Amino acid sequence: SPEVRLNLRLIPYSEDMWLVVARDVTKMMRLEQVRRDFVANVSHELRTPLTVVHGYLDMLEPDDQPEWAPMLREMQRQSQRMTRLVEDLLTLSRLEAQEGVEDATVAMEPMLSTLRREAEALSQGRHRVVVEDAAGVDLAGSTRELHSAFSNLVSNAVRYTPAGGTITIRFAREGGGAVLQVADTGYGIPAQHLPRLTERFYRVSTSRSRESGGTGLGLAIVKHVLNLHHARLGIESEVGRGSTFSCHFGAERIQPRQAPPGAAP
Ligand code: ADP
């Protein structure tokens, strides 16, 4: 039987009475599903041709036509960007289709080492990278999805911080829960942009974001991953001084840290 989805609202009417307003959102949700499927299918179909173009472009060496070199480099750069875009769209579709996440142990020590390595690789020595691991606990959730969220924050921090700046990745306890923060000393974000930052393709400065090689989907992915973990994203930023992105995890996500295999008891 066709399922009907209702959105319910309770409105106080008198001292002991409430009005119930039920809105039928079945059609809206069906349209949303069609949109999601469409994006997922298009992204999937684009993947193979892109891989082929990208692969052959990487093999071309214009030895006899040196004037082609800059054009070829630009084509490689753009095809790389398209590949990243398709990958991010597929990630978002996967996240949107998920209702919850597994509750596996997310080992935070290796996670933080991976994030450090990623920051250093992206920065190529242009920034100082600091990692502070003060929490001494692990998280419960999906390692794959949390890694993609944290790594998006790290790549933003590197891309929106001029050379000489510092990127700090901090994991600490916070009340009964924990917080993972990625702080930078970069360009910062004007306050009026903060509420819309996690929307798909929302950008503060289109030219800077394009140049930095972003897809415009990074923070949308972060928000989805955190929602799936019932975690909250906090953003603090000051223009010219830098930004701090904080992922707040509740007490139910905390797990005692496992000793690494082979460690002395
Ligand atoms: P993009 O791929 O464009 O970086 P994101 O969704 O990751 O897309 O980020 C959205 C926008 O938020 C960016 O275009 C950029 O303007 C801004 N932004 C994100 N992270 C930072 C940061 N650490 N410092 C300054 N601006 C940032």
Automatic annotation (TrEMBL):
GO molecular function ontology, one term from the record: phosphorelay sensor kinase activity
Subcellular location(s) of the protein: Cell membrane
Major localisation: membrane
Presence of keyword Membrane: yes
One term under GO cellular component: plasma membrane
Keywords from the named record: ATP-binding, Cell membrane, Kinase, Membrane, Nucleotide-binding, Phosphate transport, Phosphoprotein, Transferase, Transmembrane, Transmembrane helix, Transport, Two-component regulatory system
EC number from the UniProt entry: 2.7.13.3
Catalytic reactions on record: ATP + protein L-histidine = ADP + protein N-phospho-L-histidine
Protein name: Phosphate regulon sensor protein PhoR
